[in-house]
Amino acid sequence: MSNDVVVALDVGGTGMKCALVKPDGTVVHAERHPTLAQRGPEAVTANILDIADGLAGRARAEGLEPVAVGLVVPGVIDEENGVAVWSSNVGFRDVPMRELMQERLGLPTAVGHDVRAGGLAEARLGAGVSERHVLFIAIGTGIAAAHVVDGKAEAGAHGAAGEVGHIVVRPGGPACLCGGRGCLEAVASASAVGRRYVELSGEAGVTAYDVATRAAAGEELANRVWTEAVEAFADGLLTAQALYDAGIIVLGGGLAEAGEALLAPLRTALQARITFHRMPQIVRAALGDTAGCLGAALLALDHLEVTQ
């Protein structure tokens, strides 16, 4: 129906991106809210349900018909059963989000992983729209990926597929929050780049964006830190390409905001490492920080097709 919309919510550690989205991907209303994670998982859950209910009410008030809900969160997600198994960012432990949402709104609900949803959106609506095999990698506080084939992102046997941030690229290297050492995200994530520069310079508060800007301006230390991160990332991508054989790698998240300052040396470094693998295209994400929310809408629409 032309007035059908889905309620889409992308829940992060600090904020929520929410929207009413038509089946063709058109966003008819968007809003943002704080997650309020510091209040604890029960308060976060109540907040999510209240916001979703408010969006559904707004849709009806505007003559639209909410037909489904899509909710994506970080962490380990049991997508089949709609359970947020574990999420350190928002404190979830085995929260039955689908059941709770369906009880509150009376609408079919899909629950998914934020990065897989972002990858789904980039593959179907964004930078990977012309490719069948898309590897979407989000580089922010951590690093995670979504492998999308023919418009479908695989979650894996335990809901943890795509954790390329935990490929070990520097054995014995910096400690990672996962408990390992030398993981890609401990070396080349946005937080790791900023942290490394601060360690070497003693200057507090420097971010990865600052490092990229200073490296582009010719600062020697910034260039060294940036190059270290790019080289490590290329090592991780080589392993990822051996596993996924992507036609295109789409980079999103905070570090990708550096644009060609990241992409150009990364292409060169990966090309130098490639042996029998095919060199993928490496491009910047097209949808920015709305990808997760749009992906949530796509999950809702896909779920609706299955349940009808």
UniProtKB/TrEMBL annotation:
InterPro entries reported in the protein's UniProt record: ATPase_NBD, ROK
Keywords: Kinase, Transferase
Recorded family membership: Belongs to the ROK (NagC/XylR) family.
One Gene Ontology MF term: kinase activity
Pfam families: ROK (PF00480)
Full protein name: Sugar kinase
Record has Transferase as a keyword: yes
UniProt entry tagged with the keyword Metal-binding: no
Superkingdom classification of source: Bacteria
PANTHER family linked: BIFUNCTIONAL UDP-N-ACETYLGLUCOSAMINE 2-EPIMERASE_N-ACETYLMANNOSAMINE KINASE, ROK (REPRESSOR, ORF, KINASE) FAMILY
